[in-house]
Design goal:
With 220 residues, the chain is mainly β. It contains one helix and 16 strands. It folds into two domains: 102 residues, Jelly Rolls; 84 residues, Jelly Rolls (Sandwich), CATH 2.60.120.10. The strands form three sheets. Strands 10, 11, 12, 13, 14, 15 and 16 form a seven-stranded antiparallel β-sheet that branches.
């Protein structure tokens, strides 16, 4: 009788863990969170597997270290192996209003790492004018996000930016310095890849070393 109770309790704990929201899954580390958005650092070592976890919010991801992966859903089991994502490649999944649960496994030989941004709104997403400028390409214009690729040209030392929406800046390659009015400068490199910028806050990205490329994610 006692063994049966323990098994039931263990089973109950397993089910609770399986239904954990993404921000409680150990491979998804919360870097930043406020009322509007959440930034996650997704790290899965070669051979590693996440716990089964649930997504409730629209999410945009940026690839910063690629590997082959596969995904298991409760209904379909393991899917086909997914090819490596290109460095800086973005991907949007719209979960608001239709939550999704899955498990991710790294079946490759290198680290699988993403910087992920959740829009914590379930509806009523904001609007605003898109940003334009040299070296700027609009990648995605969806209900919860607007996403840009930004590259500093070989003759440019820096660029000035301002967004009308909260924005997450993600370094893809190279090194750079971000300067904001009244705030200490931030060095973006392999150890610090992201910065959250408030709506309407101006900033300057100055070249450090290498081929400097960014992804900017406006959270609507």
């Amino acid at each position: 009788m006692l063994l049966g109770t323990c098994a039931l309790l263990i089973g109950g704990c397993w089910v609770a863990a399986a239904q954990a929201p993404v921000q409680q899954e150990p491979h998804h580390r919360v870097l930043f969170e406020n009322a509007a958005l959440r930034v996650l650092d997704v790290n899965i070592e070669p051979g590693g597997t996440t716990l089964e976890h649930r997504h409730d919010n629209d999410i945009m991801t940026v690839s910063v270290s690629a590997s082959e992966t596969r995904v298991r859903t409760p209904a379909a089991g393991w899917g086909d192996i997914r090819p490596r994502r290109r460095l800086g490649e973005t991907n949007l999944t719209e979960y608001a209003g239709q939550s999704g649960t899955h498990t991710v496994q790294n079946v490759g030989e290198s680290l699988y790492r993403l910087i992920a941004v959740e829009n914590l709104k379930q509806a009523g997403w904001s609007v605003g004018s898109a940003v334009t400028g040299a070296g700027t390409t609009l990648l995605n214009d969806a209900r919860a996000f607007r996403t840009y690729a930004v590259q500093l040209g070989t003759t440019e030392n820096g660029i000035d930016r301002v967004h009308c929406l909260p924005t997450v800046v993600v370094l893809v390659t190279g090194e750079a310095i971000m300067n904001r009015n009244g705030s200490p400068s931030i060095r973006l490199d392999q150890s610090r890849r992201w910065v959250v910028v408030a709506a309407g806050e101006s900033y300057r990205l100055t070249r450090g070393t290498g081929d400097v490329r960014f992804v900017e994610i406006e959270v609507r």
